[in-house]
Known about the structure:
Chain A starts with a strand and ends in an 8-residue tail after the last strand. By secondary structure, chain A is mainly beta. Chain A is 7% helix and 35% strand. Chain A has 1 helix and 6 strands. Chain B has 24 helices and 47 strands. Chain B has 7 domains: 12-123, 2Fe-2S iron-sulphur cluster binding domain, sarcosine oxidase, alpha subunit, N-terminal domain (Ubiquitin-like (UB roll)), CATH 3.10.20.440; 161-288 and 409-468, 3-Layer(bba) Sandwich (FAD/NAD(P)-binding domain); 291-404, FAD/NAD(P)-binding domain (3-Layer(bba) Sandwich), CATH 3.50.50; 496-560, BFD-like [2Fe-2S]-binding domain (Arc Repressor Mutant, subunit A), CATH 1.10.10.1100; 590-646 and 740-844, 2-Layer Sandwich (Gyrase A, domain 2), CATH 3.30.1360.120; 650-737 and 846-872, Alpha-Beta Plaits, CATH 3.30.70.1400; 877-975, Elongation Factor Tu (Ef-tu), domain 3 (Beta Barrel). In chain B, helix 5 (177-188) packs parallel to helix 6 (214-229), helix 5 (177-188) runs parallel beside helix 11 (450-468) and helix 18 crosses helix 23. In chain B, 23% of the residues lie in helices and 27% in strands.
Amino acid sequence: MIRIPCPHCGLRDHSEFTYLGDATVSRPPDDDAGDWTSGSRWSHYLYARDNPRGIHEEFWHHGWGCRAWLVVTRNTATHEVIDSKLAREREVQS
Amino acid sequence: MNRRLPDGGRIDRTQPVRFRFNGKEYGGFLGDTLASALLANGVLLVARSFKYHRPRGIWSAGAEEPNALVTVGTGARREPNTRATTVEIYDGLVANSQNAWPSVGFDIGAINNLLSRFFSAGFYYKTFMWPGARGWRIYEHFIRRAAGMGKVAKTADPDRYERIEAFCDLLIVGSGPAGIAAAQTAARSGVRVILVDENAEHGGSIARGAIDHASELREWASGALAELAGLPDVTVLSRCTAFGYYDGNVLGLVERVSDHLAAAEEGMPRQRHWIVRARQVVLATGAIERPLLFANNDLPGIMSASAAHCYLSEFAVCPGGEVVIYTNNDSAYSTALAFAPHASVTLVDTRAEPAPKLLAACRRADVIVRTGAVIRRAIGSRRVRAVAIENYANIGCDLLLTAGGWTPTIALHSQAGGRPVYAAESQCFLPGVARESWVAAGACNGAFDTPTCLEQGRFAATRAIEAIGVTPATIVIPACTTRGDMIPGPQPVPHGKCFVDMQNDVTTDDLDLASREGYRSAELLKRYTTLGMGTDQGKTSNVNALSLLAKSRSESVPDIGVTTFRPPYTAVTMGAIAGRKQGRHILPTRVTPLHNWNEQHGALMSDAGLWKRALAYPRGDENRQAAAIREAAHVRSAVGTCDVSTLGKIDIQGPDAKEFLERLYVNRWSNIKPGKARYGVMLQDDGFVFDDGTTSCLDENHYFMTTTTDRAEPVLRNIEYLLQVVWPQLRVHVCDMTDQWAGIAVAGPRSRESLQPLFADAITSLPFMGVVDVSYGGQTVRVVRISFSGELGYEVYAPSGIGEELVQELYLKNDSPGIAPYGLDAMDILRIEKGHVTGAEIDGNRTLADLGLARMARSDNRFLGAAMMKRPGLVDDRRPQLVGLEPLDPAQAISAGSHLVVESRPREPSASLGEISSACFSPALNRHIGLGFLRGGEGLHDSIVYAANPLGGTHIAVRVVSPHFFDDKGERLRG
């Protein structure tokens, strides 16, 4: 029953959002051709996810609202939502 | 025997009530619970126990009842496992004992009691595992029948349930002295208050008799409640249980609105599920009296002293004439004095030296007191007849009350807090550290006397209100004195067959055995012995069990552990959770703009996700399959229309839109020109195929994408992810247009001429894969020349509001047999004939090569999934590849889901080489065909494999062919 503050829509119930996952992992470039080996950046990005306890940054999609992707800072141990910002306003990847 | 006193109690003697219990009619009064009415009628034996079928009576007067479980109601309204102690009677109530056959008085299952030494802890695990892994499966059915907990109704629940979302500044759970003091403080401070109590009557201990200064406190409580009821920002709910405490200070409550009425009033639900979001919560949930343990402590006629006191003072029922009260603390003395005018009373106190003041009071009231005495055994078979006291003569009795101290009710605290803290002095667990915004007050917080409860209630509300930022008001709490020392003396060590958990028949012997067998952690012990796992969740048994274990191991209780509390506190009806979300209201329904038209034309509808889609349009007594075959054949010979409004439609605009499509799709988009559409396939990040569809280039910076129906939302979500998170620098905006456009596929050799009356020359010269926006009745209609059926075909997209009108016009301008609707089934036939893939093939585990689409991928690797699609496992040429399949007997149907094997003999073990994904009867080929995936399939054309379907009992020889069954050069669609 947590609520997430959406920068566009205000404090909204989590049922309006979809969770995607860890927002701290960096996505490799798509043209990382042939980089499929098990230790590769793509394999690591897709399959090696941590399950941290405590304060964590996660992607949430406000699908039943403004449809913005957010980076939500949440404590995974207490479910306390600490902060949220638009994913678009993070540092831009190349 | 009539046990009702001539006067007193809060029952309404002007309103007699008739009810039936186990087929016999009894009388009671309005205000009675089933338990109080049965006791008033002298009925002590009301249930049989779960495992040994031992006779059981009424133990408590509240929600903690472990014994008196009954089934209430009949037919569709039958509800098992309700507690007789909380069921309020009404005229015509029907209740029955459970777990007994043929009757609760004579129960065959009671033979288990004689065999009980074989039914020790872990009995099920030890005995029914033979032979081998299948053991439990063999016995389970019989065991479940013998150990049933009542039977649920098998027909739909006819009652109505509601759900309400509520918000308040302060929610107070429990309206005893602490709760009322808290509510009055909060209400006078001007904050929004909700006060709830699970009982019919507010007041907690004030409404249960076992309290000194009862009349002053009652007056104060009723004054306070009247004041609260008159305030606009205060909601007071009775018969309302707070059952769960969730994240974000949200509590789930269930209010039993009309369970206590013979018939609900017009518009009244049976129950109401409240979801309350409170800024602060005061938990004043009270305490439950614990049993004292001795052999045969489960006989009917043995109950908690506080419960008996409640029945005496509130319901004017004196359940026995010869009363023995067994106690280890002061709380039972007021009960003894209350019973003294109505019965002979003997008090057995384990303590050597109770307070002289109490002893003097007993002497004055002719209550005999045995101090330093321990009851070893209750005597009796179907009810208590006497007690055996160590070092004393047996005492005859027909009612034995026990007062073993108080267990704070901390279920909600624990759900939203840290580990409960063991208070060794009070021998109980107190609330741990709050993890949500709650404050505990009263008996649940270890305050077992009324003055402290009142003070804690006022203090808790003050703290909560200050936390909100409001100045708390002050209230005057009534003067009253403490009832004595509620701290229990030590529990005597029990001997013989003592029931620790009466609901699940767990005895002291079971705990000893489990302990000897090495089950040391409280959580393991609980599961092994089933202690505390009944519907009462061990409300009366957990603390006794933990202290017994601690004693037997010479450890402290906290070292043994605490069991975890989880919602719900008491059982919640499924109906209340579902509320109005029943039948078609479980999920929203999406209908296409052509839904009415489809229904008017006899469409057979099915659910596709939330959508209603037309499967086929049967004529006369045609069945679904015959209709689909006729419709598909009609498309190949003339022209048909199909409602494709459910396709995902995404408008894409911006200077970088083309670059975005290039990255999204595996195929080339950089060279697409306005006025042209193109088929595209996109991958997931992991290299598997995600979705396919057609995107039209309307302008250099403006595109119109369609997705499959199934993937409309995931594709849009992924596009938004890519644009907002991965490539925010791309200047592209997208907008979901799925509901804005009606989509109509018009396919067949006569499709062009059928559309000409509507759009005139605008479409005459439209080339294959061309797109044009035409004006229709002043609105823009988009026509794409595209084909999923393999025939000359168009997809017409019209604004939703004119979709139906456009289809009507199309049928009006074309003589009716010449144009006919086709449904999802016919579309499936047409695309299988062409070897086109859909969701049946694109199931998230297929690569481009698996689907025969490898040549579509560009070599520049600049698209989504390019890196991972080259993993060895994904480029392995032994992967199952898309093939066409034809049964050797053309009339033989094959079914999707069948496995493909080389073994010709049915039911012989054989490795699966793949499976059939889609199958149909093809009218164009006049035979059954299918698509499937087969290991190395592209190299196996013309070979024979077998479609094995052991569930359907078929094993069919099929020939492997190209998936393009019909017109594989594509001459028809370019015509």
